[in-house]
Amino acid sequence: MNTAQYDAQLVIIGAGPAGCSAALMAASLGLTSVIVEATGSIGGKLAFIKASENIPGGWLTGPDLAAALTADLNRISSGCHLITGLAQAVASHDDRVEVLLADGRTVTGETAVIATGVHPRTASEAAWIKHNSSNTFSPLWRARPADLSGPAAVLGADRPLGTWLRGHPEFDGILDVFYTAEDKYKVDEVFADARVRLHLVESIEVDGAAPRVITAHPMAGRLQQFTADTVLLNLGSAPGSLPGLVQGPDGYCPPESQHARITTAGDLRSARYQRVITAQGSGAQAVLTHYYSTALTPPARGTHG
Ligand SMILES: Cc1cc2nc3c(=O)[nH]c(=O)nc-3n(C[C@H](O)[C@H](O)[C@H](O)COP(=O)(O)OP(=O)(O)OC[C@H]3O[C@@H](n4cnc5c(N)ncnc54)[C@H](O)[C@@H]3O)c2cc1C
Fold this sequence. Notes:
FAD/NAD(P)-binding domain, binds flavin-adenine dinucleotide, alpha/beta, 4 helices, eight-stranded mixed sheet, elongated, 2 domains
């Protein structure tokens, strides 16, 4: 197959840690790549990691690593182009993969690595939360302490709660956290934090504009009412799948289930392993999988690495 028919040998969707690693690995193997990124920025969720203890290499914040990855992509810019655009679907063919963008463009590659990550679950996706459909709530991990001067409620006790508290030692308010038995095992790390009041519930109702009234049906005891100026979501994540990908029963997109020309990487693969280092490793592995498969033009293989 003549590579002139392609925009690049490899199309990567998403410029988070997984997509950036894929681009770097591709460049080291002499493969051309195009990264399609909705925001136009490099690093994905790294922007929201204010403090971390498990990113190897001495990176203590996500933005520091994002800046280093930006420099890496600039270094390989002769073989890797960044396109700002929202991918809407992928179409796999015998000889190519096409990525369809929301603005009508199509990007074509011999193979593709899809690394679109996850997005926060909405209140409508949680059966235990009843709310007025006009209510939309922001995710906790995007909140700044300066925005939380009044009473604040958090719906769900997913892991970002502990990360957010560690990342914002200057926050000296109180978060009323409502969560169900499903999240019970996650609250250990915040149990002793005086800035958190934990409420184990069966269900809640959220009414009104600010201040909102939260009616909680506890696991034990009587119904309770709270008011909150701010309601934040912390319900975990949903995979950023695209039409054309094969999803498992939980909505995630395992690499081994995809078309031979497509590999998934990073958080999109599984609800487990959602970490920076695993995203980076899987992005690199996805490219090597294509490199050693028959999907890439033969002369590209075996001369680099
Ligand atoms: C608050 C917070 C704290 C965290 N703390 C840590 C920590 O301390 N240590 C750790 O290891 N991990 C941490 N994580 C998890 C870590 O950030 C993720 O595991 C990692 O970023 C996943 O990388 P990824 O490349 O798979 O996805 P992402 O980082 O989510 O990147 C996906 C990229 O794809 C783009 N995209 C999505 N859909 C489309 C589309 N349709 N078209 C084009 N582009 C698209 C997005 O804009 C984004 O740039 C944290 C996450 C959060 C939210």
